[in-house]
Amino acid sequence: MQTAQSGPEEDAIRAIIQEHIHLEGPLLPILHGLQKAYGVVPQAAVPLIADALNITKAELHGVMSFYHDFREVPAGRHVVKICRAEACQAVGGKALAEATLAKLGLEWHGTTANGAVTVEPVYCLGLCACGPAAMVDDKVVGRVDEARMAELLQEAGA
Amino acid sequence: MRDFIIPSDDRDMGTPAKQGAPVTLSIDGIDVTVPEGTSVMRAAAEAGVQVPKLCATDSVEAFGSCRLCVVEIEGRRGTPASCTTPVADGMVVRTQSDKVRKIRKGVMELYISDHPLDCLTCGANGDCELQDMAGAVGLRDVRYEAPENGGLANHFTARDTSGEANPQWLPKDDSNPYFSYDPSKCIVCSRCVRACEEVQGTFALTIEGRGFGSRVSPGAAGDDFLSSDCVSCGACVQACPTATLQEKSVIEMGTPQRSVVTTCAYCGVGCSFKAELNGDQLVRMVPYKHGKANRGHSCVKGRFAYGYANHKDRILNPMIRDSIEDPWREVSWDEALSFAATRMRGLQEKYGRRSIGVITSSRCTNEETFLVQKLARAVFHNNNTDTCARVCHSPTGYGLGQTFGTSAGTQDFDSVEKTDVVIVIGANPTDAHPVFGSRLKKRLRQGAKLIVIDPRRTDLVKSAHIAASHHLALRPGTNVAVVTALAHVIVTEGLMDEAYIRERCDWDEFQQYAEFVSDPRHSPEAVEMLTGVPSDDLREAARLFATGGNGAIYYGLGVTEHSQGSTTVMGIANLAMLTGNVGREGVGVNPLRGQNNVQGSCDMGSFPHELPGYRHVKLPEVRAIFESAWGVEIDPEPGLRIPNMLDAAVDGSFKGLYCQGEDILQSDPDTKHVAAGLAAMECVIVHDLFLNETANYAHVFLPGSTFLEKDGTFTNAERRINRVRRVMAPLNGYADWEVTQMLANAMGAGWHYTHPSQVMDEIAATTPSFAGVDYALLEEKGSVQWPCNDAHPDGTPLMHVDGFVRGKGRFMITEYVATDEKTGPRFPLLLTTGRILSQYNVGAQTRRTENTVWHDQDLLEIHPHDAETRGVNDGDWIRLASRSGETTLRAKITDRVSPGVVYTTFHHPDTQANVVTTDYSDWATNCPEYKVTAVQISLSNGPTEWQEDYAAQSTRARRILPAAE
């Protein structure tokens, strides 16, 4: 092994790891911290996290691949999540999802060409009483129809 | 729990055994009593009731994911999983009812809806738990079908009918040479992942994704088994209930139909295996659950690396030649044996009775070793017998003999489960004793503390979920100074166990010793410059060991193979006595023996000064036992040690050698001197599987047999006598004990053993510590630890329980004396040597298996600083030179070694690390100082002159004439 030169990024990653390492069960907070700082969990962080927590790359992969929100490639500037759970499907959620994807010309998890919006499925936002529900970044929206979705997408720049 | 005898009950009990107060419950109307904490599933198995299951197996803790094992329990709601439900007193359990049958069928139907139905052509056909369970729950129909136009909702079809690829389908991973991973057959029960974590402790596997997308993944995304952290121990293959992880040999040869329990012939752990066969064809080796050394675990060598037994290089016919310049001539056994016998007798007539000798093998059985030393003593009429233990654990024999009164390791391997603080010194168990390494790591994950004393950062220092509290990275050659400094801290800070010392040890001697170690020149601060170990760290380590609870010391050849090897062993014994850590579970002094039967070959009287049972040949009463048993007079003078034999050969007074199963040219230090000694002999008889390096200088080659081809016993590092059972007929025609007997008889001995059990009876009749051992006992108990005699009819798992064997434990003064092998301007670096997981010793066996994918050449590990100042890059050819010789190999730059220290392995003869090592040796036992050589390295263009000459000579020496028509 060559002793790797510590670039600024590596030091920054180490700083984020150090910020959370004292917590009980520090892995998820560390991943959240990295995701927040970089929009992804950078590949360079993998050996550093594994070393700091004394876990293997396999274990880290198991955790990261379980949670959709820890990304290996960055999402668009905004993330639109459309609820796919039963209650929303029963009030038109499925049609809304299909129409939205068709309008943007995307598959699930796809990002628009201008990098503005990524569309993802989500399974229940807890808004069953006012479906179909969606979430734009951190904000939940109820009773979304196609027109409301068009508005949301426009705001997001899609 | 129940300890089954052979033939044993090999059922999977579902969940691991527990210890606790007895609890009685009723299962399907059968009352059963089990320890508290046992699962309902295991209790049912104890009662003879098998609850259907998929995700549970008794090598790992229950997981409760498959829901096939649901049962009904009176007074409880619902249908709890029997694997995760602990028993309670008075519990009434029903494993069969309409309700649970319906649930199980439904669960099974879902599993099978995502599993290919190619059972008849599947590699696991007949050995598949999924198949068995589908039968057990009475599954007759699978109603689930993919919706029309909905795509393929399964993981096992590569393409749909229109040729569209199924994104859920993953191709088979054949990257591991021994087993394949076929994701299309996986039921994601996690047994492999849990086995990798709980049993092996490598954490190489995970479940990636979630829900329907969950898959077993080796390493991270993009890894396959070979590129992952997988060490190929086989625990996952063992745990897999389907054909997902499957031995390639089974896929190729079919399901084995019979099995024989035997003992692995690699390291000193002595794992028990089931050799599974079709006819006399070995299909696979499976770790044996009731093996008391391994408890169902294995490593890559024992589990998979047996291919050498049928390798094309194996020599199956005897060969002779007049001179080592001639090519070999294949001859009949009679001709070879009479040629050898005539030559040996001729040498004795010409040069005297003591001009010939034997070297016994730590690879062969106890019975074979006993016969080889008997050949020297009763047929050659001298004591010129030595063994490869000379070059590994002879200092253990001397050091522990002096302090405790016996050379034996004090514990069994199970003891590690009770230990609280472990010192590992000069040993790398995760590579060299992997199954013990896994057991140790398991205990560390439970919270035991670890102190590693090693110049190199071994995997134990830090790897997944374990880390040493202290790594004392000492300079090679300073073991005594470090061990004495640890004792200094314990004594001067008053941390010793005075009551224990007063009761069990010689108090006067202790006082002298205490005065000696208390001298400020032994303080950590005083020796810091010498050892390179920070004094604070050393003090903390000493305090931890003295106060941390049950303290156990495990050590290996990094302790013994030094000019002060015996002194360090005594220092270790001192530490154990000082802290009261001998004589109960979880403590002790544990030498990790290198080879499968090092312990046994020493027990069997292989040393020139000791008759079997470590009794000096000078003692007339001991000689009398053997004289009356063998009807010969035994030479009262100790014979020659291996280095003395070689010196005497060069001087011209030692002329003939029978060397069984050992390659002294490659394994012994200072290769050039060994070569000169062998070349000076007039009759060298090599008895081996292969034309090894020593055979280049031999006149007679007697083909050997593998451990699969003979009956006998091996004794492992915990003194456990394990049976080796014949699995197939010897390819060469004779087991090794028969060959030795034929040679002895050709020299007029008149032996007539017809089975190794008769040799064991002779050992028992002459050797008190084996007095109670016979094959009937071994069949009954599976294995037994010596001493086994009237006082200990069931053997002795722990030594020194009621006091030391020698009476009072004896503290020995351990003065540090620096080795004469010193660094200087010409040779500024210290070379130390060791092993790697996938290769074994000189590599004669493992190099002839696919283990070479992990290690195809010896590499020199060097610290980045040392590399940089010499302009060496990773992978460069470099020349490694010492005062003895030089060789070339490739560099591996790593900070595992400290600056000033380089490290290599000695598995490959074309590297010949021992050309470089010196002939310095232990002051007491002549154990060579492999672990310290002053060297220099520089860039190189290729092999050295020695390597080229050697390669040419060995090609010449290995010519075999075609057999005469």
In short:
The complex is a heterodimer of chains A (158) and B (965). With 158 residues, chain A is of the alpha+beta class.
Write a structural description.
The complex is a heterodimer of chains A (158) and B (965). Chain A is of the alpha+beta class. Chain A is 46% helix and 11% strand. Chain A has two domains: 8-66, no CATH class; 78-156, 3-Layer(aba) Sandwich (Glutaredoxin). Chain A has a four-stranded mixed beta sheet, covered by helices on one side. In chain A, a hairpin with a 2-residue loop joins strand 3 and strand 4 (139-141). In chain A, helix 1 (8-20) packs across helix 2 (27-38). Chain A starts with 7 loop residues before the first helix and ends with a helix. With 965 residues, chain B is α/β, with parallel strands linked by helices. Among the domains of chain B are: 22-136, Ubiquitin-like (UB roll) (Roll), CATH 3.10.20.740; 334-391 and 597-785, 3-Layer(aba) Sandwich (Rossmann fold), CATH 3.40.50.740; 410-591, Dimethylsulfoxide Reductase, domain 2 (3-Layer(aba) Sandwich), CATH 3.40.228.10; 829-957, Barwin-like endoglucanases (Beta Barrel), CATH 2.40.40.20. Chain B is built from 29 helices and 37 strands. In chain B, the strands form ten sheets. Chain B has an eight-stranded mixed beta sheet with strand order 15-14-25-26-27-12-13-37, with helices on one face. Chain B has a six-stranded mixed barrel with strand order 31-35-32-34-33-36. In chain B, strand 14 (356-360), helix 9 (366-379) and strand 15 form a beta-alpha-beta unit. In chain B, helix 9 (366-379) packs parallel to helix 25 (736-746). Chain B starts with 21 loop residues before the first strand and ends with a strand. The chains are: A alpha+beta (158), B alpha/beta (965). At the A-B interface, helix 4 of A face strand 6, strand 18 and strand 19 of B.
Largest interface: A-B, 16 and 28 residues
Q: Largest sheet of chain B, described in full?
A: 8 strands, mixed
- Biggest sheet, spatial arrangement of strands of chain A: 2-1-3-4
Lateral arrangement of strands in the main beta sheet of chain B: 15-14-25-26-27-12-13-37
Pfam family, one (chain A): 2Fe-2S_thioredx
InterPro entries (chain A): NADP_DH_HndA-like (IPR028431), NuoE-like (IPR002023), NuoE_N (IPR041921), Thioredoxin-like_sf (IPR036249)
Cofactor (chain A): [2Fe-2S] cluster
GO molecular function (chain A): 2 iron, 2 sulfur cluster binding; metal ion binding; oxidoreductase activity
